[in-house]
Every structure is written in structure tokens, then in C-alpha cells.
Amino acid sequence: MTDIRDDSPSLVPDGPAVEASAALLAFARTAQESRQVGEVLAALLATSVRLTGATHAAVLERTAHDGLALVSDLDSGLPEGLTIGDLRASLWNVLLGRAHLRWLSGDTAPRPFRDYPGWSQGIVVRIASRQGPAKLLLLGADAGLEGVEVDLVQGLADIAAPTVEGLEMLNGTRRSQALLHGVTELAGNLGAAVSPAQLLEAITTGLSGLEGIEGARVWAPTDSADLPPVVVAGHDQGDVPDTTELEARVRRLLDPTISRGVRSLVESPARFAPGAPFVTLLTLEGEPCRVLGIVHRQPLDDLSRGVLASLGTATGPAMREVEMAAERRSLLSSYTRALHPNAAPAQLELAVQHHPNTTAPGSFGGDFYDWFEVGEDQAVIALGDVSGKGISAASTASMVVWSLRAIGGRGAQPTVITHLLNGVVARELNMEKFVTLALLTVDTARWEVRLLLSGHPAPLVVGDGRAKVVDCQAAPPLGVSEVANAAPPTVLTLQPGHALVLFTDGVTEAVGSDGTRYGVDRLASRAARHAATGTWSAKGLGDTLWQSVLDWGGGPPDDDCAILVVRRPPLGDSA
Length: 575
What we know:
Blueprint: H1 17-33, H2 37-52, E1 56-62, E2 67-74, E3 81-83, H3 91-95, E4 101-103, E5 121-127, E6 135-141, H4 150-188, H5 196-208, E7 215-219, E8 231-233, H6 244-254, H7 260-266, E9 270-271, E10 278-284, E11 290-296, H8 302-323, H9 330-337, E12 349-355, E13 367-375, E14 378-386, H10 390-408, H11 414-429, E15 435-443, E16 448-454, E17 460-463, E18 466-469, E19 474-475, E20 490-493, E21 499-503, H12 505-508, H13 519-531, H14 538-553, E22 561-567
Helix pairs in contact: 1-2, 1-4, 2-4, 4-5, 4-8, 4-10, 8-9, 10-11, 13-14
């Protein structure tokens, strides 16, 4: 049934080679110019049929339960969903990239294709992708595929693959951004709740109104034999099947003795009846423990699940605060803390002074920072500033941080990161606000630093008792145009014991008692004096600079402020 290598004659024995080449070039251009995955797949099917003489074509995508969903169709006659079967099924080899599949008679056609007319002959190849579910390109006919070369069919799939992968990544990022934006605004608007019941109602109602989410429930321990939800939002009882499996999962999560590993497995998304939506369960820690069920028609990506998990983690402290009638905005604070990066990348000293506007009650910061490793001896570091203040600025800041992690964490180049972030910000903010960004990539093996600025102040380089502004070109801020106007990266070598000091404009625009702004020159002068004291560290430099800003203004400035120090340890030291 499976033909791994086909030595049959050329693809179109009677057709001019120039026509085939022209069709391939036309398809390649179409794939590059398309803005929707469906357009690329439709062009792939049309071109495949034209070049092979197939009468049926389809693209199938693997689903969460080892089935196949029809995502693009050209007279295939196939249903919307197919079952792959167990590991003996030949389709598994294709899905896993081990082989292609080919049959030339109805007797050898694999299930389920032998059950559908027009598939007596067929070819199946994989559309390779490192992200998202695997896809298959299927071509079928009752006759005429004997002379078709599988390698050329695979070549068509390979032409489409990178465009499909890129568009799916972009579409996934767009969906995630909408969820991120909505969850952050939801968290920031929960301060009006004065009781646990109101807080739960606000969470479930708010989640039910977000794009991609159909409803939400909360369960709590009960002495009853069944598990009625404490709060139901966005659904009637019948929309989420009250099956034995769902009840068992909820009861497991309500058990205080459950281990963290088992909890993670039980919380994983699942369908509890054929054709039903997915339900993702999250434990809301507190007394009593509660379980949040989020209902969604499409699977959630890792980024979206992480955002929702952060909301679930932050709900417990917020519950306690509500019960104590204390800080009403603790949920947003807890959620914002989830945006802080993990430990510093190896071989680097990193220190941050991050201070949202502290003189305006109820305001939240629009300054953000992040860092992460993308490979051995490679780190990405970012500091940015969202125009505006308050919850809206904080919402945008969190959106950018999660987007940066989603895009940069895959190892994309700095210019690609900036380009994709610009598109996200422009779409989400409708070019009504903007974001400045300083983006560093550091090679800690060679200590080469590549710096990209988007409307952001140039950093200082500090060392040997001196400090000066890095001479570099900046592109416009993110979000002012749908098309990013890239500036070339500035490349420099960070010497042993030297540091880069990144800052937001809230630092240099701090106003002193005489109305004079603090300024870049004063910041550089204070940094140079500190670096001339002998032994110093990234943290010590950051602390000194922030204290200097406080002394200048007689207290915290009335704007968000952030200082990020990136230092290469002196020779003989380690980070």
C-alpha cells in the first residue's frame, strides 16, 4: 500500500515541461502573496490537480483526538472528519514524516479512502510544519495517477509549507493577542467586586465575552451527590455535557491532596461528548478551593493557556483580598507579576528598577521589560514603554510582553521580532497609541550585542569610569504604521566589566524642584561616577541611578519609570 520511492516516469509525460514550470512559479508567487491560509491551500489544490490530472483533492489536518479534519477541499467527496485508526494505520507514517502514501487500485486503497468514490488511486504527502497540527495533501482519481511523480507532489507541498506555517503563526498570535488584551482588561476591572460571589460572577461573565471563549463555569465543593456549578455564565446547563468524566475531573481538582503533576494532567483541555466544545479546567486556589471551567470551540495554544493559567493563579490572592475588603486591584497586580521574567540568562548580570506611576492612586504601569534565552549563548533582552497610563497602558504592556515571548521565544531574528510586534501593536491599538522598544540580542560567547531601537531612547554604555550614549539609529515607534520602517541594528562588543543601561523617558523627564528635567547627561554623569568607584555590580548601578532620580525630584516621578542594566561580568567573575 505504501510506496516509499516511486520510479515511475515523469510527472506530465504528454505535457510541455515549460507549462509545468510556469504553473509551479505561478503557485509559488501566489503562496508568497497570500494573506490567508485558506488562499494558499486552495491554490495548492488547484495547482496539484492541474499538474497531475487528479480529479479529487483535499488538505486534512490532525485533530486533538487523532482524527483528521477537512480544512481545504476540491471535489474530494470526503466528510468533514475522518478517523486515522491505531498505530498500524499507514497514515501515521505520513503524519510523522516517515514516508508518503500511494495506491494505484481500489483494492489497495487504505481505509477510510476505499469507502469513498473517486479514490481508487491516490497520493498522500505531508505538509511539513514545526508549529501547529500536522497537515496532509491528498490527491485522488479513479485512473491516471500511474505516471505522476510523488516527489513533485511533495515539492508542491514543500512550497506551500513555510507560507502556511508563517500565516498560522501570525493568526495564532492575533487570536492570542485578543485573548491577552481581554484577560488583562478583565483583571483590571475586577476591583469593583466586594464579595467572592461578585468576583466569580465578574470572571465568568468577562471570560464568556472574550473572542474564542463560549462560556465559563465555576465549581466548588458540595455535599451533594452531583456537582452543580456555583456560577454559570454564557451557557445553559446542557451546553457543557455533565458527563461522568467531567464530574470525575472536577472532583479530582477539588481534592486538596492532589499532586501538582496529576493536577496538570486533569486540567488539560478535553471534549466530554462527540461534537461538544472543549473544556479547559483551572484550579482557583483558596479556601474553599474552586475549579474554573472555560468552554471554547477551538483548541487553545500554549500562550493562551498560559495567560488563562496566570489569571487562575492570581484569583486566589484576589479572593482573600476581597474577603478582607482590602486592596481591590490585587488581581491585576498578581497577574502583572506573572509577566516578570525568570532568572537572568547565563553569563549575564541583569538588574531592573521598575516603578509604575506611584503618585496617581489606582494607576498601573505601561513600562515593561523581559528577557529570555533562545539557545546556547544567545539571549534576548527588551525594555519598552507604552504611550498613556493606567489600566489601558498596562493591558497593552502585557500584550506586548506575551507577544514578545511567543515570537522571540521561537528564535526569530531581531528584525523579524520587531516587524511582527509592529503588526500586532498596529492592529490591536488601531494606530491610536504606540509602543517604544529597545531590543537587545546578546551572544555571550563572543559578547556581541545587536541593538534595535523603535522610537526608544538610546542606551548608555558604562565602564572604566566613563558613560556615553550609544550612537545608533532608531526606527519609528511600534504601532504608528502597519508597515514597520526598520532601522539597521547597531552592533557593538561589550567589554569585560562594562554595562549597557537602558531606560524609559520617565527617568530622564523627571522634573526637579526648579522645574528642570533630569536629562540624559545627568544620568550618564551619575553612571560614570558610580563606575569609577572600583568594584560595582549591575544591581548597584541600577540602585544608584534610581536613587539619583528620586533625589532630583524629591520623590517618585509622576510617570512610569524603568531602568534596566545589562552587564558583562569582569574577567574571572561569573554572572
